[in-house]
Amino acid sequence: GQNIDQPTEMTATEGAIVQINCTYQTSGFNGLFWYQQHAGEAPTFLSYNVLDGLEEKGRFSSFLSRSKGYSYLLLKELQMKDSASYLCAVRATYNQGGKLIFGQGTELSVKP
Amino acid sequence: DVKVTQSSRYLVKRTGEKVFLECVQDMDHENMFWYRQDPGLGLRLIYFSYDVKMKEKGDIPEGYSVSREKKERFSLILESASTNQTSMYLCASSPMDHYEQYFGPGTRLTVT
Q1: Could you give the CA distance from residue A105 to residue B99 in angstroms, rounded to a whole number?
Q2: What is the mean pLDDT of each run of 10 residues along chain A (112 residues)?
Q3: Which chain B positions have a beta carbon within 8 Å of A103's beta carbon?
Q4: Digit-coded pLDDT (tens) for B82-112
């Protein structure tokens, strides 16, 4: 079956660094996405990894290890506005439509 | 900027009613998606479409149908609404050869 696991909740302090992990077991793999979703709003795209390694984009970085079925999202210099849900999603196969499988999301609370 | 709009932010319907949720995107995207989002379950794909008049079942299509008569519009239909269809419904779109999905603001549907 298809399975994506991420922690349900995390808490971190303003200015700190936090790492949100995601493990996946899927029938195939054609890319992993991270989305950010603030309460009551639509998810917005953060990052995409298809090859092993680290992708950096400002304060946010995302890492992928395909052999381990593992990714993480790293948030540096945390700000209060980073309090949100972070969704990990996998494109399991190359098929028409670009179908994604989502994890349940990690609710991050940033405290002063 | 890509814009995905949904017909209503909040909707209240009675059990047994036929419900239409409309989604429109203005970026000429080929792919469109309907998800529902429930606490603890994450985003689950209901139906998707990769071309006009084409539709594919997602992971939880039971109780739903869709229509895509024009490229920019993708409708989700609940033939006979039930209380277990109370949820947040999110529409998304993406270009054919690009993996990132753009989400609409969501419709919170309550079935009483």
Answers
A1: 19
A2: 91 97 90 94 93 95 97 98 96 70 95 96
A3: 42
A4: 999 999 999 999 887 667 899 999 999 999 9
d(CA B73, CA A40): 23
* β-bridge pairing A106-111 and A9-13: parallel
Cβ of B42 within 8 Å of Cβ of A104? The answer is: yes
Tokens 């109780």 correspond to B63
- Residues of chain B positioned with their CB less than 8 A from the CB of A43: 43, 90, 103
Which residues contact residue B97 at a Cβ distance below 8 angstroms, ignoring those fewer than 6 apart? none
Chain A neighbors of B101, CB-CB under 8 A: 45, 98, 100
Q: What angle do CA B15, B20, B25 make, to 5 degrees?
A: 150
Residues in chain A: 112
Cβ–Cβ of B90/A102 closer than 8 Å? no
Give the whole-angstrom CA distance, residue A75 versus residue A62. 9
